[in-house]
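Write out structure tokens for U-box domain-containing protein.
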Amino acid sequence: MRLRHLELTPNYALRTAIQEWATTHGVNMSAGGSKLNAPYRYEDEPRNILQGHEEIVWAVEVCGRRLFSASADKTIRVWDIESRRCEQVMEDHTRPVLSLSVANGKLFSGSYDYTIKVWDLSTLQKIQTLSGHTDAVRALAVAGGRLFSGSYDSTVRVWDENTLQCLDVLKGHNGPVRTLVHCRNQMFSGSYDRTVKVWDCNTLECKATLTGHGGAVRALVASSDKVFSGSDDTTIKVWDAKTLQCLKTLLGHDDNVRVLAVGDRHMYSGSWDRTIRVWDLNTLECVKVLEGHTEAVLALAVGNGVLVSGSYDTTVRFWDINNNYRCVRKCDGHDDAVRVLAAADGRVFSGSYDGTIGLW
């Protein structure tokens, strides 16, 4: 297990005792650059780093002027993007909140407490708790008026978006369901059982089980006609969304493929091997390998003319899509791994293991 080496709790009582001792004995605590005498002020924090969560940020979702962040501290925070202030803390989950999805005036949140909470976006109040899963709810996706929830209990549950009733429990996976993506009226579910299952969004029947990966499937993304699956086996498989046949296996990464993102012309893969690979959507060839991160790449987002990446090395990097993917900006500010990213309206939002939100 990778240690969170910067998870430090300030001991203010000890600091005060040291300051009193230093004053009594005539010792100048500012020598050597120490900041013990300087009172902590909220204003000293960089304006683009939003403080509030006490533990890992597992998910971020943008909706209009608001940013929603889900954390291991069991809460969801609602941020006003312009003022950068926390409007509300949504508390009802009893264990870490892992996943978020916004649709038609509602926010859905999935948690380690096995439930999905439904929140009204206008009042920010809880509407209902959806129960039934018997393990953590790790992935959420909305399609065709239905909410799909993927769980570590190896099932996908389908809920009516309006009545919030459970319509069906989709069974077949033999391991935790880690990721969901919608394409051509089909829901694709990726699992630690090394497979991807394809569900008809109308009939809810399993149309196919996509096999071939030699490790857990952790990431799925879709273009207009293709679905890409990233796996611990270091490969990415490309599936035709209509025929459900494997078009190609993309090779090149030296370690687990952790995250995928798709843009207008390219698909992007981030790996534990510290690199990002750029793949042409038409030829399915690797056209560029982006190097610079010094630890695993955990998050990717596509913004206006830029690819954004977040890493275990605590940084957020911006790559210029129109200038041969040159790294044009490296952002510091987080004290631990950058776990999730979201891009909207010329801004990028990053969630970190240190509990903070970055606004870039």
